[in-house]
């Protein structure tokens, strides 16, 4: 009940913002993590089919996209290099998500550098004219302390990278196992419930993340959206794009979004590490709404 009241307040606050004239349309850059494989999959569904479906929706909407690659998967699952080729052929920028998706806080800086460099041949091969020197931290883990954070940024800087920040999202990964379960059981009611919750999560994230930007920057920033290459998100992509369009967003590239000064700490790695969202809120003396946690509800669907 408490949550409901807070959410209601957030909606009101955001709609008063929306009513004000804006100088520019809202902007959002779509980024897709865990290429080529984000498991589990519904029975009989392949990573290739999932990518094909997701790419088709993005292409139909003329949406620029950056995908982040863990090249180890191509070794684990031969054939999945075709997935990367699909994204490349569709004009996606392919960035670095580390070779094996490891937590930075569990690695030495030398290991972090290995993870970075080992992932590069897959990107170089398909880089074409696009700048693939974008890094997305696995688990969004930027380091266990400031010392490690600074050291990792130095490694990224030496290798010519910019960091892909995340300023909006709705934990789409949390739907991945539930969708595979419901599909395996042919449970249409379960799938419908997952779809309903997914749409609600997208809409709530728009309200909450705009609210956060207004508190932290006193304006809308170009948002960077994190999604994953999951069967559920491929299935939902046409609706996701429609929701953002209806909310007044236009889709821009990651480079265009991060050209905004809000992202300087991620594009200029000679600067000190930017504060986390929580730290930034504390520094500004503002309170941000905690992202809703759907995992408990999702665990019970088609269980
Ligand atoms: Zn990831």
Named CATH topology: TIM Barrel
Shape: globular
Bound molecules: zinc ion
Specify the CATH architecture.
Alpha-Beta Barrel
CATH superfamily: Glycoside hydrolase/deacetylase
How widely separated are the two ends?
26 Å
- At the first level of CATH, what is the class? Alpha Beta
Low-confidence segments, ≥5 residues, pLDDT <50?
Answer: 1-19
Q: Provide the structure class.
A: alpha/beta
Percent of residues in helices comes to 40-55%
Task: Work out the count of structural domains.
Answer: 1
Q: What is the element string, with H for helices and E for strands? A: HEHEHHEHHEHEEHHEHEHHHH
Largest sheet: 6 strands, parallel
- State which percent range the strand residues make up: 5-15%
**Mean model confidence by pLDDT:** 92
Q: Could you give the count of β-strands?
A: 8
Radius of gyration: 19 Å
How many separate helices? 14
For the structure shown, list the relevant keywords.
TIM Barrel, about 300 residues, binds zinc ion, alpha/beta, two-stranded parallel ribbon, disordered N terminus, 14 helices, 6-stranded parallel sheet, about 10% strand
Write the layout of secondary structure elements.
Blueprint: H1 2-19, E1 26-35, H2 47-60, E2 65-69, H3 72-76, H4 81-89, E3 93-96, H5 109-118, H6 120-127, E4 134-135, H7 146-158, E5 162-163, E6 168-169, H8 176-184, H9 188-217, E7 223-228, H10 231-246, E8 249-251, H11 254-257, H12 264-267, H13 277-284, H14 295-300
Parallel strand pairs: 1-2, 1-7, 1-8, 2-3, 4-5, 6-7
Helix pairs in contact: 1-9, 2-4, 2-10, 5-7, 8-9, 9-10
């Amino acid at each position: 009940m408490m949550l409901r009241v807070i959410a209601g307040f957030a909606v009101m606050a955001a709609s008063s913002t929306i009513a004000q004239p804006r100088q520019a349309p809202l902007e959002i850059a779509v980024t897709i993590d865990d290429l080529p494989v984000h498991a589990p999959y519904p029975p009989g569904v392949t990573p290739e089919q999932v990518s094909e479906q997701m790419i088709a929706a993005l292409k139909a909407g003329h949406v620029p996209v950056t995908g982040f690659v863990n090249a180890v998967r191509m070794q684990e699952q031969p054939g999945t290099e075709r997935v990367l080729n699909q994204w490349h052929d569709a004009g996606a920028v392919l960035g670095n998500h580390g070779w094996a998706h490891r937590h930075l806080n569990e690695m030495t800086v030398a290991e972090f550098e290995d993870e970075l460099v080992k992932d590069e041949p897959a990107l170089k091969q398909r880089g074409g004219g696009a700048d693939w020197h974008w890094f997305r931290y696995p688990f969004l883990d930027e380091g266990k302390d400031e010392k490690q954070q600074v050291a990792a940024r130095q490694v990224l800087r030496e290798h010519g990278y910019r960091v892909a920040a995340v300023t909006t999202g709705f934990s789409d990964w949390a739907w991945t196992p539930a969708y595979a379960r419901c599909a395996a059981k042919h449970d249409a009611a379960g799938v419908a419930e997952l779809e309903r919750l997914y749409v609600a999560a997208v809409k709530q994230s728009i309200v909450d993340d705009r609210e956060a930007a207004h508190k932290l920057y006193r304006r809308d920033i170009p948002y960077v959206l994190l999604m994953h290459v999951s069967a559920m998100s491929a299935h939902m992509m046409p609706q996701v794009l429609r929701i953002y369009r209806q909310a007044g967003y236009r889709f821009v590239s990651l480079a265009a979004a991060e050209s905004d000064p809000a992202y300087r700490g991620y594009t200029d790695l000679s600067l000190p590490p930017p504060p986390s969202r929580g730290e930034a809120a504390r520094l500004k003396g503002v309170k941000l709404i905690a992202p809703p946690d759907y995992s408990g509800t999702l665990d019970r669907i088609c269980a």
